[in-house]
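Re: export button greyed out
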Amino acid sequence: MGTERIAKNRRKFFQTSAALIGGTIIYSLIKPFEAIAQTEAENSKEGKGNLPLWGMGVDIESCIGCGKCAEACKMENNVPKEPFYFRTWVEQYTVKNDGEVKIESPNGGIGGLKQSVPDEDIFKSFMVPKLCNHCTKAPCVQACPVGATFISPDGVVLVDETYCIGCSYCIQACPYGARFMNPITKVADKCTFCYHRITKGLQPACVEVCPTDARIFGDLRDKKGDLVKFLQDNPTQVLKPHLNTHSRVFYNGLSSEVK
Amino acid sequence: MPKLIFRLFLSFVLFVSVFILIQNSLTPDSFGKYGHYRADAIDDNKISTSYYKGEENCTTCHEDIFDLKFNDLHSGVNCESCHSPKINASVECEVMPPVIEGTLKLCAQCHETNYARIKIVPQLNFKEHEEGRNCIECHNPHAPWELKE
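Workaround output, generated via the alternate export path:
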């Protein structure tokens, strides 16, 4: 009698705990997909095709290294004036006749870049504007422990300033060095393609001021747009393609020296 | 069910429900709407002030200068490339005019000789060329080849 009771209760106990554990597991399995199901529903409702997919083309052959873009970016986005904080900057690459590569970017190119190598020693020289590459598979987004950095539905990598805890993991994760710690807000800061401008139909500040049209900004889904035309006309490349980040900043005339 | 098991079960349920409650109260409302982030942050990123207003904003008043510029070599250069808005550009142009300071330095940003510069931009050695004068003493910046007397 006694053993039977225990056996019955034991069976009941195992049944309830199995049901409980099973339920918890199923719930935890379904929970992460809720967000995806929701986004899919939203996307189909709003029509994802209607949303733009922002990208930028950079024509290295046109860039004259005047540094207007870096200057305008700092003003437009209230970036601290110290020469360590840049959302965009211009690098000057100089390949000497002996094969040595010199990379310079004093103050991010603000005020115009000056050649420090005498002309007779130069094999080739060019300017490379740099900014956040707005990766489709962004390493910074994967590294963020709190979900404070994300890719917006229109393809721009943004930072949630109120949610960022300032751990700077994303700064280490970014292979392009495009992020920095803002000394005023104490959170991660980066190029947003001037999100406050592009959503109002304006061009980003760097594109607006570029005197030689070396930067082309546009919608990658707009088949008749400037950016798609630029991509069709020129053989473009992305920076560090081996990292598989699928970035949305395309360079025309990129030399192998550029890292 | 023995008391011990019941207590264990009860404390487990209590622990899980308290955990879910705390988690829900700490997670912002819009979190997870589009993905693993706060959907409201998209709107937060939109509210910043734009200092650069775009060329169309300038041409409404200064159409004559725009026409002059448009028909000359600086046609590709936007107004705000040189006339950068002052830091408090929310006020109107008349209150805080976007005056250019240091013309020589400004012109040198694009026109100083540099091996890396493309040849379509005229380059010159400013030390040899200027002869101690400011660029705008001879050149009209809106039409650079209309030399002044």
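Chain B touches chain A through 48 residues (CB under 8 Å). The button fix ships in the next patch.
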